Amino acid sequence: MPVRIEEIIERIRREIAAEANAAPTDRSGPSDVDRLPAISTRPELDYLNRNWHLFDPLSEMRSHRRWSGPLVVRLRWKLRRLVLGVLDRYFEKERLFLIELVRFNNALAERSDRLLREVTERTKAVAERNDLFLGALDVRLEALEAREQLRRVLVESPRGLAPQTGDAEESVLAEMAVAVGAGLAERVRPFGHYLRSPGPVLLLGCGDGEVFEALDGIAATGVEASASLVDECRSRGFAAEIAALRSYLEAVQEGSLGGLVVTRVVDRYPLVTWPRMVAAAWRSLRPGGVALFEGLADEGAAARLRWLAGRQRFTVVDAREFPGDGRAPRERVLVCRRGEAT
């Protein structure tokens, strides 16, 4: 069925009018690009490809007149030859022009379709990357919000998260650490001058009170997981509280301590909890505060704690090794300082 140019023009006008009258929600969006027909398949281009040829000079001519028809047809043939003879160069030029115009339109349509596909694919790739980036950003923001919320809770209620009593296992470990950790005062006393700084001093694992005496009058508060050990400290006139040690340290208000003594590290704290313990120690100290870690029974434990302290931005200011008495192994003490605020 032949296609009329008037029908094509009328259809284009209807499409333009319908798009102009469409509601904003009815307009085509980026997701509709895949459903758009290719430019090379448009009926306008198909009409141009089928109708660009000039008229055929040998095409048949007819006349509806019965008697004078043959004469009219013969006259037309002569007139056609005369016109073609005079305008031959013009028609040839017009034919070449139409050929190049059709070739250009087809090439332009193919190139436009290819460019549109490429732009669409790249746009989808960029959208996917943006989705991944925004998803990762959301996760990161949620983590930061959770961290900030936890920090606020710890600041607003520094003791609310600390249990009032230690559990049974930690209580037994505390009593065992005191029993096997003879000589604690001798290992802490050489470092007392590091703790003479403005600010409270916390003894995490104060035992039966021996470590208090090693401070030679420095005011300090002790925390212990065993009720019997706390009672013994109090009977000797020292301030001590009963609590689970790790939870208590994590609940201490940020930057509130001038000094911290952590006793019997290997005996009381599993290796897997050391990163959190060192991080909580750094957080609880004010800039310039000192943390003393005692009870590192071997060189490997001292090396691990030294590495964790450096990772947490502590500066190791002192490290010593104390000989055993034959029944007990050699002990090591590590003293770390939190850097000054910049």
Calculate the mean pLDDT score and round it. 79
Can you tell me the overall shape?
rod-shaped
The CATH topology of the largest domain turns out to be Rossmann fold
Q: What fraction of residues sit in β-strands?
A: 5-15%
Strand line-up of the largest beta sheet = 3-2-1-4-5-7-6
The CATH homologous superfamily name of the largest domain equals Vaccinia Virus protein VP39
* H-E string: HHHHHHEHEHEHEHHEHEE
How many domain regions?
2
Major beta-sheet overview = 7 strands, mixed
Radius of gyration: 46 Å
- CATH hierarchy class name of the largest domain: Alpha Beta
Structural class: alpha/beta
The portion of residues assigned to helices is 40-55%
Number of distinct beta strands: 7
CATH architecture level-2 label of the largest domain = 3-Layer(aba) Sandwich
Question: Total helix count?
Answer: 12
What separation lies between the terminal Cα atoms?
85 Å
Low-confidence stretches: 158-165
How would you describe what is shown here?
The protein is of the alpha/beta class. It has two domains: 5-151, no CATH class; 168-338, Vaccinia Virus protein VP39 (Rossmann fold, 3-Layer(aba) Sandwich). It is built from twelve helices and seven strands. The chain has helices at 5-21, 43-50, 69-86, 88-156, 168-180, 184-188, 210-214, 227-235, 245-251, 265-268, 274-284, 299-311; strands spanning 201-204, 221-224, 240-242, 257-262, 285-296, 314-322, 331-338. Strands 3-2-1-4-5-7-6 form a seven-stranded mixed sheet, with helices on both faces. Strand 2, helix 8 and strand 3 form a beta-alpha-beta unit. Helix 9 (245-251) packs parallel to helix 11.
